[in-house]
Specification:
- With 403 residues, this protein is of the alpha+beta class.
- 51% of the residues lie in helices and 21% in strands.
- The chain has three domains: 12-132, PAS domain (Beta-Lactamase), CATH 3.30.450.20; 139-235, Orthogonal Bundle (Helix Hairpins); 244-402, Histidine kinase-like ATPase, C-terminal domain (Heat Shock Protein 90).
- The strands form three sheets. It has a five-stranded antiparallel β-sheet with strand order 2-1-5-4-3. A five-stranded mixed β-sheet has the order 7-9-10-12-11, with helices on one face.
- Helix 5 runs antiparallel to helix 6 (209-235) and helix 7 packs across helix 8.
- The radius of gyration is 46 Å and the shape is rod-shaped.
């Protein structure tokens, strides 16, 4: 009997020791968990916290115990609502993303597990366990931001590609139209030549005033048609340029002899040609056409007379020749400046609206640029920039040295 009592006593001692060790083990896990651990009563007041939660909040144990958890976890009420909605004996809510307030610092993002149970005293206890996912959240946000940026870049690139394709299709259409126009223009020129010869023959035969006037009208219109055909051929010309070394000043000297006495007397040309203008790899005939078109436009812009300043200069730093035409005419309204280089746009009676368009195309074939600046009543300035190709210039000098 005594031995039985002794055995029961030993068993109770072992059980007590086991419970003590078990309690110490759970205490160790609670206190030294890498995640924050918080025990609350049924009113949401803090009963116990571990070291991690104290570090997160920056508070001491005595500053935390007895306070409501809402101060640090604003979403707590929402969590409790979800907890009550769980229709299981052991109520548990997992994988909730929350933010923990930290005085003086940025909030901390955590993944939370919330459990409710009854302790030995019959009281409802709530256990919160949270893992810091701030870095993961930051990476997710960065990834999302990167995705958005990439999506914007892809969208932008897609728009550019669409625009480029549209422009390419337009250029293809223009190329087909251009070739058709060139073919038609050549076909028109053949019967025009025949008609012109017939008119010349009829003009050589004596006729009354009426028939003579009609023949002159036919001749004027033939010249107009020929001028339009010539303009169309130059507008859509993609080849046939005859490049050679020439001097821009020399082209203007030839123009002076070409214009001769036909230039209006009430318009004065003021020439300021640079003395250091080098030769360039140009099509002199085409540039002559450009200069003539600009000069004729300036004449039409000065019906009451005025001055036309023509200036040439060389910029050795940029290796370009600058040509400027400045008139004292009526100027160009602002709304027309954007249209002035478009085909068939003209404000002059009898004009084709192709002169400046052709001129710009020729300048572009020379890898140059042409710009127009003007204000109503203040005249207009047309600037042309023509680059000199260095390789060609080197080859020319090398050939001269070899000779």
């Amino acid at each position: 009997m005594d031995s039985e009592k002794l055995g029961n006593k030993e068993n109770k001692a072992k059980e007590k020791d086991l419970n003590y060790k078990k309690n110490n083990y759970f205490k160790y896990l609670f206190d030294y968990s890498p995640d924050f651990q918080v025990i609350l009563n049924n009113k949401g007041k803090i009963i116990r916290v571990n070291k991690v939660f104290k570090e997160i909040t920056g508070k001491k144990k005595r500053e935390l115990i007895g306070n409501l958890i809402d101060e640090f976890i604003p979403e707590f009420k929402k969590i409790m609502t979800e907890l009550r909605d769980k229709r299981i004996k052991k109520k548990r809510v997992t994988d909730i993303e929350i933010s923990v307030n930290r005085p003086g610092r940025e909030p901390l993002f955590c993944e939370l597990i919330c459990m409710a149970f009854i302790n030995k005293e019959g009281e409802k206890i709530i256990h919160l366990s949270g893992r810091d996912i701030t870095e993961r959240k930051r990476l997710q946000l960065n990834l999302l931001e990167t995705d958005e940026k990439l999506e914007k870049k892809v969208t932008k690139s897609a728009k550019k590609l669409k625009k480029a394709r549209s422009k390419l299709n337009q250029l293809k259409k223009l190329s087909i139209i251009g070739q058709s126009v060139i073919n038609v223009a050549h076909e028109i020129r053949n019967p025009l030549t025949t008609i012109n010869l017939i008119v010349q023959y009829l003009e050589s035969i004596p006729a009354d005033n009426y028939h003579a006037e009609q023949l002159q009208s036919i001749q004027r219109n033939l010249k107009r048609i020929d001028k339009i055909v010539f303009s169309l051929l130059h507008l859509f010309q993609t080849s046939g340029f005859n490049f050679s070394y020439c001097n821009v000043n020399g082209i203007f000297e030839r123009l002076n002899s070409t214009l001769g006495h036909s230039f209006p007397r009430n318009i004065k040309i003021v020439e300021k040609y640079g003395s250091n203008i080098p030769q360039g790899w140009f099509d002199s005939a085409c540039l002559e056409q450009v200069f003539l078109n600009i000069i004729f436009n300036a004449i039409q812009a000065m019906p009451k007379g005025g001055e036309l300043y023509i200036t040439t200069s060389f910029d050795p730093a940029k290796n370009v020749i600058m040509i400027e035409f400045k008139d004292t005419g009526i100027g160009i309204p602002e709304e027309n400046l954007k249209k002035i280089l478009k085909p068939y746009f003209t404000t002059f009676k009898g004009g084709t609206g192709l002169g400046l368009t052709i001129s710009r195309n020729i300048v572009r074939k020379h890898k140059g640029t042409m710009s127009i600046d003007s204000k109503p009543g203040e005249g207009a300035i047309i600037s042309i920039c023509l680059p000199i190709k260095k390789e060609r210039e080197k080859n020319r000098k090398r050939d001269e040295n070899n000779d």
